[in-house]
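Incident review: delayed structure delivery

Summary: a single-chain prediction request sat in the queue longer than the usual turnaround. Root cause was a stuck worker, restarted by the on-call engineer. No data loss occurred. The affected request and its eventual output are reproduced below so the record is complete for anyone auditing the incident later.

Affected input:
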Amino acid sequence: MKNQDHIALFIDSDNISHRALEGIINELSKYGVVNIRQAYGNWTKDNLKNWEEKLLEFAIKPIQQFDYSKHKNATDILMTIDAIDMLHTKKIDAFAFATSDSDFTPVVMRVQQEGIKVFGFGEKKTPQAFMAACSQFIFTEKLMDSGSRSADETPHKRKTTKDLKQDKWLLNLLKNAHNQTMDEHGWSNLADMGAYISNNSSFSPVNYGFKKLSNLLRFMDIFDIYMDEDSKQMSVRDKGYKI
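Output delivered after worker restart:
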């Protein structure tokens, strides 16, 4: 059996909804075992009372941090210290930060410097700097929309094909990934495209209502698609490609 990656999840309970936890755990489980799960906050506050049930349900360790002074978030500092400490003392293959706070951007960049992937989860209000620093960033609203179902089972939450084709950032990202990975016949292997995208952005198909990149490409209908029956690998080619 293939060894699974070990993932450490750090949750900023002040800047994330407890309702997103199930979706976050489910998403990370696609990439490995989330064997370190820690949520930070001042658990004596009434606004965190709803977290207790979720912490027990998903075996998340609550880390208590009192507010030493007003208007200062000591939770951020402790969470950062613990993340850097684990970076140097434990065998972790990937980190995950659940927060909408841009203050965690430096620690994400520091982890990335070690060649370790960082998954980010936060609300759509999350500053661009933090999202861009992550290897992959997913909006928690999308995870809460889908609930216990996969993102592909909620088409009513999804943009139309026309809407997606008018998303210039998305279109440029996909076209560029295809151009950089295509062979002499104009075909790009989906895995190669996915790796290129991952190396160059924090993109996730989940943010567009899809569980996989392949499903997003089929829905957008901007590429010809070929599926090799033997290898089960998918390749795509620009519909405007001239032989």
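Verification: The CA atoms of residues 39 and 62 lie 5 Å apart.
Action items: add queue-age alerting; document worker restart procedure.
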